[in-house]
Amino acid sequence: MQIAGRTPAPFRRRPIAAYKKTVLIYNPRAGKFERSGGLLIDRLADALRREGHNLIVEPTTGPGTAGAIARCQIAQGADLIVAAGGDGTINEIAEGMVRTDVPLAILPAGTANVFAVETRLGVKPERVAALLKNLRPRRIPVGRLVCDGGRVSRHFLLMAGIGLDAQIVYRVNAALKTRTGKFAYWVASWSLLGRRLPEFDVEVDGRPHRCSFALVSKVKNYGGDFSIARTVDLMQDSFEVVLFEGRSTFRYARYFAGLVLNRLEGMKGVTVTRAQQVKVASSPDRRVYVQIDGEYAGRLPAQICIVPDALTVLLVEEYGERL
């Protein structure tokens, strides 16, 4: 295991002409693509071809298929994979690329676009497509989640959430999300007001805690609009872990105020720490869910760890140089 906070390797720019086969993978049922009637993906493909990419466009064929498409294309000689979509689509594609040397580029076209906001790419996919030549490949660690008694094993780039936020993700109406984007998450949040939240036991690098929401994060950005973790970035071989105590959803109104005012750390009921491994015990309450990168992943028990030197991504040069 590598040491947390190691000095990042230097960037090595690779000219677009050096990529012999670029594959653009996208989810045609994602909100922005579906609402555009196919026009958005055509514009993105045109933008990449104008930049000199020898391009193949691959739509996903259903949930969970993006990783297999990426693996297949890499086996057939793809040397650059471009993920067009939201954080969930990016997560699926990255799952098929972990432990390979092929770079992953991101065109933000989702609901929250946490990856794009975090890495300062911006949220306009056509503009990012034109800027890929200025990005540089960087090797990053990722997180790994094992849950549901070992039946689920997944990697993640951004974060894992256990408890409250995963319950919100679980309750989001997919059709409403396609039509309205982030508003669907607010609707799911409001539906929990006044309810008692289940608590669970968390072990953070061997230290026990009890909470109703645990955020295990590789990024500062949360939901595209907020910052819960404050001192972590994608380059580091550790998580920032933020734990929230309390069973009342009304208590989270105070936490939310602390979040907005940048006063979470030090608040009563909030613990902020660093870790490379997190374990969450089984809970008798079946409402304790786990989400990764904004998508439902499974139920407890769960184990989360760092996988160092796992994935190559194209990033702006200055990302990770300062917190």
Question: Can you characterise this structure?
Answer:
Helix 2 (39-50) packs parallel to helix 6 (125-131) and helix 3 packs across helix 4 (87-95). The protein has helices at 31-36, 39-50, 66-75, 87-95, 114-118, 125-131, 164-171, 174-180, 183-190, 251-260; strands spanning 22-26, 55-59, 80-85, 103-108, 136-147, 152-156, 159-163, 200-204, 207-211, 213-217, 221-222, 226-227, 239-244, 270-275, 277-280, 289-292, 295-299, 302-315. A hairpin with a 2-residue loop joins strand 16 and strand 17. The model is unreliable at 1-11 (pLDDT under 50). It has ten helices and 18 strands. The strands form three sheets. Strands 1, 2, 3, 4, 5, 6, 8, 9, 15 and 18 form a ten-stranded mixed sheet that branches. Strands 14-13-10-7-16-17 form a six-stranded antiparallel sheet. It is α+β, with helices and mostly antiparallel strands and 323 residues long. It is 25% helix and 32% strand.
Summarize, please.
25% of the residues lie in helices and 32% in strands. With 323 residues, it is α+β, with helices and mostly antiparallel strands. A hairpin with a 4-residue loop joins strand 5 and strand 6 (152-156).
Set out the fold topology.
Layout: E1 22-26, H1 31-36, H2 39-50, E2 55-59, H3 66-75, E3 80-85, H4 87-95, E4 103-108, H5 114-118, H6 125-131, E5 136-147, E6 152-156, E7 159-163, H7 164-171, H8 174-180, H9 183-190, E8 200-204, E9 207-211, E10 213-217, E11 221-222, E12 226-227, E13 239-244, H10 251-260, E14 270-275, E15 277-280, E16 289-292, E17 295-299, E18 302-315
Parallel strand pairs: 1-2, 1-3, 3-4, 4-18
Antiparallel strand pairs: 5-6, 5-18, 7-10, 7-16, 8-9, 8-15, 10-13, 11-12, 13-14, 15-18, 16-17
